Amino acid sequence: MYRYDEFDHTFMAERVAQFARQVARRMSGEMTEEQFRPLRLMNGLYLQLHAYMLRVNVPYGSLSSAQLRGLAEIARKYDRNYGHFTTRQNIQYNWIKLDEMPALLGDLAKIEMHGIQSSGNCIRNTTSDQYAGASADEIEDPRVYCEIIRQWSTLHPEFSYLPRKFKIAVTGAPKDRAAVALHDIGLRLYHNAEGKAGFEVLVGGGQGRTPVIAKTIRKWLEPEDMLSYLEAILRVYNLWGRRDNKYKARIKILVNATGIDEFRNQVDSEWDKIKDTKLQLDAQEIERIRAYFASPAYETLPDYSAELIAHGEQNTAFKEWLKSNTAAHKITGYLIVNLSLKSPKQPPGDITSEQMLATADLADHYNFGELRVNHRQNLTFTDVRQIDVYELWQKLAALDLATPNIGKVSDIIACPGLDYCALANARSIPIAERIQQRFEDIDRLHDVGELSLNISGCMNACGHHHVGNIGILGVEKKGQEYYQFTLGGSSTEDAALGDRTGPGFSTDEVVNAVDRILNTYIEQRDDIEETFLETYRRVGMAPFKEALYGAN
Amino acid sequence: MPHMVIANTLRDGRVVFLSHDGSWAAAIADGELAQNETAASRLLADSKSSANSNVVIDPQLIEVNETDHGRQPTAYREYIRAYGPSVRNPG
What pLDDT, in 10s, does the model give residues B38-89? Predict the structure, then answer.
């Protein structure tokens, strides 16, 4: 993991002191709310329906156990004993007090964390593959480049007031677990014919009220050119992105209006001016950063998978969990283990202080003291010895972190919705909870198989509904909550936007509607191997529409 | 229909209602009800006084129904603001 250096620590201390002065001036009335609001937002502090909400960056989802303990302590000391992990791999606290913020930021700085650029029209937390550095299918570790982007983009003076917020994701594996095509810029690391690593660069993706799949702006970019090329894109966007209309201000609108070829020409022309400047990354600098992400001290272990399967023969619950919540590791004798934050007992992505503390202890014991937050609002242990997996599962189950539903219908992405969010039109969490309760039966869950279900409480799409295999969008109609469905969305390497089924459903009807969609899939699928998305792509909308709205 | 003034406190962001003596009450039942437009306008003007500018943020009028179960804001968003999230706090 990256560790703060002396410069980072000094900067954080100065920043906390600065915000403490700003809070004092606001509390005394020396500063108006209008003047103060942008300053608090720059530190990640929003005002929601019931209280202030603080968003803390978790750079590309990587956390040490010490940081998780610190986050648990903050939840206990300054909030209501829980936190909420988001699709940007960050953590949010929902019940923060303004006058306690300076002390809170001081505690955060001690664990090398902050909320800077978690809000506002700037470059937000760069997200990545939660399996980075560990997965069997990885080509290159994307965290190295995420960290370089983090250092370049933090407080970048030219990009602190962009037309709108800006999100970057990097993946280093053919299986896209970071939704790169739904980002303002997506970087895909791959090897060329000579075996050298470089990037495919995508631009202009995004969700919100105008969802767009990103387009390839450059098929091959040398890693050494990454920053100069990103800077060229940002400069063109900063110059031409619309500042007159918030809803048309994202880069996706500019790319669509300009056309990808002309946009590419403009970027290339800017790039020519800055390509050979100090933005050029030398190989030595890349290696310096790479050293922070050196593999942990793996042991030479035998493949233990046969023994794990044998354990599963005697314990169905373990077998189901092993099948859905673990993934192949690049090193023999190790497994990747996902901790589900999608128990029917808790809102999606929520975790209590006690769970955080216990998870930190488990990370120390089983996972080299580290863990990841992933964009589907779960946690991941990337480096667990296969021989420890059964024991770890028992401990996770005792903490209610072993619901065997990763990648299944109850592994729901949900935004906080109208229960917390000032922008929302409808609630998300109670809908997610009802769906989870309906599909609690493990046999049904596994019969339905691989499926993503995403819920947003408004068209800003924080719950990624456009790219859920089943997407649910909450809307308000004459004071009532309604839920519209989309089918066929995907956020992976075959990214697609879902198609709207038709009129929405009331709160009481929505779970039955999900049931009807799933029954239709089961009737229509060729065999149990054909996933929901494959079936939808083969048979189209018609049978689902009929199941939802009748023959007419 | 009667109106009330709802706001968030500056100090901790909590939801409050303007009460008859000009103080801010945490419970909707303790807030002042304006029964007509003139009273509502006066209530809103009071809430935006300079003294209140560093006590509360963004005071607004909301429409409220008086029912057997207490006062209920007509807009669902304000109902949730007044009574808290509809889901259990996991902590």
Answer: 999 999 999 998 888 899 999 999 999 999 999 999 999 999 999 999 998 8
A419/B85 touch (CB, cutoff 8 Å), yes or no = yes
Summarize pLDDT for B29-38 with one digit per residue, the tens. Answer: 999 999 999 9
In a domain, A128, yes or no: no
Count of residues in chain A? 552
Of B13, B80, B85, the CB nearest to A52: B13
Please give, rounded to a whole number of angstroms, the shortest distance from the CA of B13 to a CA of chain A.
4
Domain C-terminal end among A398, A426, A457: A398
For residue A18, pLDDT over 60 is answered with yes
A30-79 pLDDT, tens digit each: 999 999 999 999 999 999 999 999 999 999 999 999 999 999 999 999 99
Residue A5: pLDDT band (50, 70, 90) is confident
Task: Tell me whether A360 touches chain B (CB under 8 Å).
Answer: no
Residues A299 and A331: their CA atoms lie apart, in Å, by 9
Q: Which long-range contacts (CB under 8 A, 24 or more apart) does B70-76 make?
A: B70/B28, B70/B29, B71/B4, B71/B28, B71/B29, B71/B31, B71/B33, B73/B4, B73/B6, B73/B28, B74/A479, B74/B1, B75/A479, B76/A418, B76/A476, B76/A479, B76/A480, B76/A481
Asked whether residue A117 is domain-assigned, the answer is: no
Residue A115 inside a domain? The answer is no
A83 and A147 co-located in one domain: no
Q: What is the DSSP letter of A121?
A: S
52-71 in A: which are within 8 Å (CB) of B? Answer: 52
Residue type, position A396, single letter? L
Per-residue pLDDT reduced to its tens digit, A376-386:
999 999 999 99
Instruction: For residue A329, give both structure tokens.
Output: 């590791």
Residues A520 and A486 in one domain: yes
How distant is the Cα of B80 from the closest Cα of chain A, in angstroms? 7
Q: Which of A400, A401, A346, A347 is nearest to A371 (CA)?
A: A401
Q: How far is CA A439 from CA A406, A482, A531, in A?
A: 13, 21, 17
Residue A143 sits in the same domain as residue A268: yes
CB atoms within 10 A of CB A210: 15
Each residue's pLDDT tens digit, A426-439 = 999 999 999 999 99
A257, A292, A327 — which closes off a domain? A292
Q: Which residues pair with A373 in a beta bridge?
A: A379
- The whole domain housing A25 covers 6-110
Q: Is the pLDDT of residue A83 over 80?
A: yes
* Contact call for A51 and B12, based on CB within 8 A: yes
pLDDT at res. B56: 97
A346 touches chain B (CB under 8 A): yes
Asked if B14 and A50 come within 8 Å (Cβ–Cβ), the reply is yes
Structural domain includes residue A124: no
